[in-house]
Amino acid sequence: MAGYKRFSFPRWGLILFVLPFLVGCVALSARTTVVSTVTIEPVAGTEGGGAENFGLIGRVSVKDEKQGFSGGIHWQHTDTGDQILLLSPLGQAVAQIQRNPEGIRLTTSEQKVYYAADVEGLTEQVLGWHLPLVGLQYWVQSMNSPTTAATVDWGSDGRIVAIRQDDWEITYSSYFPPEQLQTARPRVLVLNRGELRIKLVIDQWKTD
């Protein structure tokens, strides 16, 4: 197994941190009033399961007290694994993350390959920031993971406003209009944990 090595993003990637969010930026809806907060306990027997299949194309920005990253994201999730491609603001491949039952494989733009048992530790070591893929596969679909306890805020429009789970707070500021998708899907969500902030803007959903 290859050893860990922190992957340094190109300096221009830090300078253009906000560029993808200025071009074609989605107008955010007004913040919905929270009308109820519910604590949800974990569901027994769900530890080995996963969220329903989906694909998405969007933009992601990551910022903590030390660094930042901004670019595109292509993500295909199935019940057998994940394929995530991170792109620079100019559309160049920065990293590819592949998850399957055998583990995690991360390939950098320099074609260096790293392996690990979990994506959270691997992205922290190689990319310099923590990608909470285990929970994010649910959060990105506006639902809490069933494997651990969660606190969920519901808005006056019947949609989830925020989820607090596994030391993360996920807030939803915009959803796709109901006529565009069969089920309510988030357009903009922000994940916060300590100094780390991950913002995801989804441009296109594909569901099975």
Number of domains: 1
Q: For the record, give the distance between the C-alpha atoms at the N and C termini, rounded to a whole number.
A: 34 Å
Question: Would you list the SSEs in sequence order as H and E?
Answer: HHEEEEEEEHHEEEEE
The fold-level CATH name is: outer membrane lipoprotein receptor (LolB), chain A
Query: Rg from C-alpha positions?
Result: 17 Å
Number of strands: 12
Classified by CATH, the class is Mainly Beta
- Helix proportion: 10-25%
Strand order of the largest sheet: 1-8-9-10-11-12-2-3-4-5-6-7
Report the portion of residues in β strands: 35-45%
Overall morphology: globular
Q: Summarize the biggest pleated sheet.
A: 12 strands, antiparallel
CATH superfamily: Lipoprotein localisation LolA/LolB/LppX
Structural class by sheet pairing and helices: mainly beta
Low-confidence stretches: 1-30
Count of helical regions: 4
- Average pLDDT figure: 84
CATH architecture: Clam
